[in-house]
Design brief:
Mean pLDDT: 76
Helix content: 25-40%
CATH class: Alpha Beta
Strand content: 15-25%
Number of helices: 6
CATH topology: Rossmann fold
Order of helices and strands: EHHHEHHEHEE
Number of domains: 1
Strand order of the largest sheet: 1-2-3
Length: 147
């Protein structure tokens, strides 16, 4: 089955109403048969241990995005597809989470990043594909160093 092998984090996060960060990630983990302990550990991986008891709607934009990434990674997918926002790009300059995603996926098929910023793609990716309306126009090695 393909679905359990993929993790997806979209730019706009959508969570279950009234659940805390811990409850959110444990819910996602349970969908894949992942133990609650692993879900709690993932909150630490993305730097949200201190916000575990905070309702998702009370998290800052960056915290919500990190929770969304944690939910996408909690079942250790082979492929992670994610999109970055301006806020995450700013956060990354201060040690953000994209590197964590790349490190976690290094032994797997790896992450797939969606971005409109070529400098970002060149610095974070091994390969780049340029798409227009869902059609790949060109694909090949990134000119940067990659992860």
């Amino acid at each position: 089955m393909l679905l359990p092998r993929i993790g997806v984090q979209l730019q706009a996060s959508s969570f279950f109403e009234r659940l805390t960060a811990r409850e959110q990630i444990r819910t996602f983990a349970s969908l894949y048969g992942v133990p609650a302990k692993n879900a709690d550990d993932m909150l630490g991986t993305v730097g949200l241990t201190d916000q575990a008891g905070v309702r998702a709607e009370k998290l800052s934009g960056g915290q919500a995005q990190r929770l969304s990434i944690a939910c996408a990674l909690v079942h250790d997918p082979e492929l992670l597809c994610f999109s970055t926002s301006q806020q995450e790009r700013l956060t990354r300059r201060q040690g953000g989470i994209c590197g964590t995603c790349c490190e976690r996926s290094a032994t797997r098929a790896g992450p797939s990043l969606t971005t409109h910023h070529m400098d970002e793609a060149e610095s974070l990716c091994d390969r780049v594909a340029i798409m227009d309306h869902g059609k790949i126009l060109r694909a090949g090695p990134a000119s940067g160093t990659g992860p």
